[in-house]
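Discussion board: Methods & Data

I've been asked by a reviewer to show the raw model output for two of the constructs in my manuscript, not just the figures. I'm not sure how much to include, so I'm pasting the format here to get opinions. Each protein appears as its amino acid sequence followed by a line of discrete structure tokens. Is this the kind of thing reviewers expect to see in a supplement, or should I convert it first? Here is construct A:
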Amino acid sequence: MATFDLRVQAHAKINLYLDIIGKRPDGYHEIETIFHSIGLHDEIYLRKRTDRQITVHCEHPHVPCDPRNLAYRAAKLLLDDKPDLSGVEIMILKRIPVAAGLGGGSADAAAVLCGVNALFDLGLTQRDLMQLGVQLGADVPFCILGGAALGRGIGEILTPLPPMEETWILLANPGFAISTAWVYQQINLSLTVPKKNVTILARCLRNGEFINIARHLYNGLEVPALSKYPAVAKIKAKLNKYPSSCGVLMSGSGATVFALMQNQVQAHRAALNFENDFVFCSATPMSSVGVRIS
């Protein structure tokens, strides 16, 4: 690998809770969610260029290396109005499954915002970067903040919560994407459906009540997603039946399903047990950070 100036870890996220509570005039949905960063991460490598161009390199076949890429747009957002600065070369090593409900694109954008800020010594605070990040995507501010947080608005109004640093999870993905737009379109806000309480789950996190956290997992997007995609429903059923699985939920708009595990050993055993059953299966710890620069 060529020499780069900076390496940044871009951590994936899961949603321990996700409820759609309304729709705004601009088409965005109002949500209540609890985000949590996880250990699974992409690696972003940054290097100053000798010209003003922004370039993106990634070998993943479903990741564009042009202005459609959120990482490209993140660099452009910071550098466009600074003609005295050079451009930047971005290389993305993908480990987070694409379009999987794990915030991979948002994580990469968050990492580039933080990395370019450090590389060019721009002096922006975390709060500054989070305010810029929402222009790129609703999950980007949390990916910059990292750890655990209650999210409201479109997910950008964040209240930090204590992270579950000692907890391990199992991730399972069927190998196909679910359209986020399609899933949200299936939500009928006029229907009253039984749901769990985000306030209770937030309190359980603050008190470190692992078993109660597992009992109060909730995702309002699961019903339409699992109805249309039996493969995702089968993953959830298999993980629910696994003895050391404490709570199972689809993350975000899917198609990844996660299981809270009793401990690290059990998480790795589960990963070995299911490695031939799912296209993607990995044990990973929860993380207290969203972005790590080295």
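Construct B, same format:
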Amino acid sequence: MTKEKFLTLREAAKYLRVSERSLYRYISNGRLKATKVGYWRISESDLEAFIREGMNVKKKNK
């Protein structure tokens, strides 16, 4: 049995190149699944599903 890896909001935001505030918005409107255990956590599989479904977000310019 393999354990699911969870990312913090900061890690997920960095991976997606969006702000943490954007992730809060996606979670609150139901576009992105997340679990709150003290802090919000997003499973890698839910993050990959979010990307596959076409997250339609603007990338931050760096």
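Answer (T.O., handling editor elsewhere):
This is acceptable in a supplement if you add a one-line summary per construct. For B, something like: The chain is about 40% helix and 20% strand.
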